[in-house]
Amino acid sequence: MKIVTTNIDVRYAETDQMGIVHHSNYVVWFEVGRTEFIKDLGYHYAEMEKDGILSPVVDINISYKKPTLYGETVTLKTWVDAYDGLRITYGYEIVNEQKELCVTGRSVHVCVKKEGFRPISIRKYLPKWHDLYEEIKNKNS
User: Fold this and answer.
1) CA-to-CA separations, 12 to 3, 20, 29, 59, 91, in angstroms, rounded
2) What CATH number is given to the structural domain containing 32?
3) What angle do CA 39, 40, 46 make, to 5 degrees?
4) 78 with 103: CB under 8 angstroms?
5) CA 87/CA 122 separation, integer angstroms
6) Does residue 16 have an active-site annotation?
7) Number of domains in the chain
8) Which of 58, 81, 105, 124 has the fewest CB atoms within 10 Å distance of its CB?
9) Which residues on neighbouring strands pair with residue 94, listed in sequence order?
């Protein structure tokens, strides 16, 4: 399974008064991981957007296991959990410095044309990306 890891230094601004990371920041961190995963494949969201294609989140799920704290460096693991040619589901895990599982999650995305915001076939509009995701999916099976 292809997994991309990203280290994140927990900043003070991401925490509440108790020094615990606010739950909304995990969604931002998932985006960081997803962007790094895609970069690792040789692609960039910015290039896709220049071509008029966006990849919005259509569903997201987060499960909180243990708080992450100000001053820690956490490790975010990102992978493709599912792919069907239209939807991409990314999986995420965040572990703290003690290697304890803190957060798990999944986000589901589609690709859409900027004008009209209708889902498009990744196979048709992004064939190289489709082939890579098919390869990843087959290796994960």
Assistant:
1) 28, 9, 15, 28, 26
2) 3.10.129.10
3) 10
4) no
5) 8
6) yes
7) 1
8) 124
9) 76, 103
pLDDT tens-digit series, residues 18-68: 899 999 999 999 999 999 999 999 888 888 899 899 999 999 999 999 999
Query: How do beta strands 87-95 and 73-83 pair?
Result: antiparallel
Asked if 60 contacts 81 with a C-beta cutoff of 8 angstroms, the reply is no
Quote the pLDDT of residue 141. 65
| Chain segment 56-114, per-residue pLDDT in tens | 999 999 999 999 999 999 999 999 999 999 999 999 999 999 999 999 999 999 999 99
d(CA 139, CA 78): 15
What range defines the domain where residue 49 resides?
4-140
Residue 44: predicted pLDDT: 85
Query: In whole angstroms, what separates CA 118 from the centre of its chain?
Result: 21
Residues 45, 38: Cα–Cα separation, whole Å: 8
Three-state DSSP state, 80: strand
Identity (one letter) of the amino acid at 117?
Answer: F
Is 11:72 a contact under the CB 8 Å cutoff?
no
The answer to whether 102 and 65 have CB atoms below 8 angstroms apart is: yes
Structure tokens at 102: 């803190």
